[in-house]
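pls design
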């Protein structure tokens, strides 16, 4: 059953959402790569615009240069090409979605970021213990993301595996098209509804109205007491409450009506309009996602076992808060202000 492993996929899906490249480190890495390229460019070309031997205008406009040669931004001695800048924007949008900013604003932001990075290096902040620690954490996260992405790609099932799984679980893809009627009853805690003794006669009248082709809604005086599906609805396994699913999938004859078990608050009627089965092409995305999650979990479990992970159960079972270094005791700020 697909629903039986929904928790597994939700867990893997959470990991996929959580596993994302830390943007500020991406920028630092991009800055480092850009700096190397800029050094090469600075050595290979004069600092000003290129000129002809006769001192005239450049032989080609900046716009005619290829993206990996056209310099679009300078911060001090650092030169950023069109290709580098667009790669940076692409990395940002891949993580955060399309940037709702003009190209000029993005360029301003990037220039400011590079400027501050250069200033941080000039002030030797990259050598401070705090920055070294943060960069180490970010490097570990980026490497973890890269490996997870590699494992995720490798865990993707083949079309043959998807087809094999589909054929082995055909019943899971059965669907029923239902027409439902909810007749609410009066009782403790719910004043809206019909009198309990009138629910069954009303249900019989509604069934007869459908059978004769007349409008069953005309039998209802208060629309808040009876709710009809606007049109027949299609359900697959695990797409409705268990009690309703059991009754619905037990019906086989089109046009058949059935009534759910006694409920003090409502009488529920269901009519089977049709039965069917979702095709392999319809189910391929769902099966692919499920099998990929299973394969990914299996590979992660194997890696954990082979790596030899050990945890101090006593420490990790503790509910005591983790002490934060350099944190002031609660209320210390207030005490200082009162002195």
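designed seq:
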């Amino acid at each position: 059953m697909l629903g039986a492993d929904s928790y597994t996929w939700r867990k893997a899906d959470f990991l996929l959402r959580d596993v994302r490249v830390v943007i500020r480190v991406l920028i630092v890495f991009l800055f480092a790569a850009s700096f190397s390229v800029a050094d090469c460019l600075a050595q290979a070309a004069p600092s000003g615009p290129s000129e002809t031997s006769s001192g005239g205008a450049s032989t080609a406009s900046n716009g005619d240069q290829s993206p990996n040669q056209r310099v679009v931004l300078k911060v001090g001695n650092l030169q950023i090409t069109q290709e580098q800048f667009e790669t940076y924007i692409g990395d940002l949008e891949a993580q955060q979605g399309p940037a709702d900013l003009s190209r000029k604003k993005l360029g301003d932001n990037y220039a400011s970021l590079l400027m501050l990075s250069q200033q941080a290096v000039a002030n030797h902040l990259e050598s401070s213990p705090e920055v070294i620690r943060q960069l180490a954490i970010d490097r570990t996260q980026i490497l973890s993301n890269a490996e997870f992405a590699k494992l995720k790609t490798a865990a993707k099932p083949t079309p043959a595996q998807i087809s094999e799984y589909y054929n082995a679980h055909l019943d899971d893809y059965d669907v029923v098209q239902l027409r439902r009627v909810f007749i609410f009853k009066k009782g403790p805690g719910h004043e809206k509804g019909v009198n309990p003794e009138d629910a069954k006669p009303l249900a019989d009248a509604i069934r007869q109205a459908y059978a004769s082709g007349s409008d069953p809604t005309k039998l209802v005086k208060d629309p808040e007491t009876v709710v009809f599906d606007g049109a027949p609805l299609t359900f697959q396994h695990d797409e409705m409450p268990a009690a309703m699913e059991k009754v619905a999938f037990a019906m086989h004859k089109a046009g058949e009506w059935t009534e759910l078990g006694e409920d003090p608050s409502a009488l529920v009627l269901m009519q089977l309009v049709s039965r069917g089965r979702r095709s392999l092409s319809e189910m391929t995305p769902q099966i692919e996602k499920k099998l990929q999650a299973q394969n990914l979990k299996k590979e992660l479990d194997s890696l954990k076992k082979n790596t030899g992970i050990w945890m101090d159960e006593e420490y990790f079972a503790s509910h005591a808060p983790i002490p934060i270094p350099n944190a002031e005791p609660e209320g210390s700020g207030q005490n200082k202000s009162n002195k």
